[in-house]
What we know:
single chain, elongated, 63 residues, mainly alpha, 3 helices
Amino acid sequence: MGGGVALWWTSGDGPKAIFTDGVGWLRERKVLLPGVTTLARLVASVRDDTTKRLCRPTGGSSG
């Protein structure tokens, strides 16, 4: 699922779409699904981490 994070971020999909895509990804791979709350927390965590990563400075000079 990690490769889809950038795609989800740039597509503008909200948490509901990310959740639905995640469930679909897990079902395709016949993964035993966790509870809805667990999966919702995972989606929120990945989204928050991605936001922080995209918003932090790159460290390079802008001149």
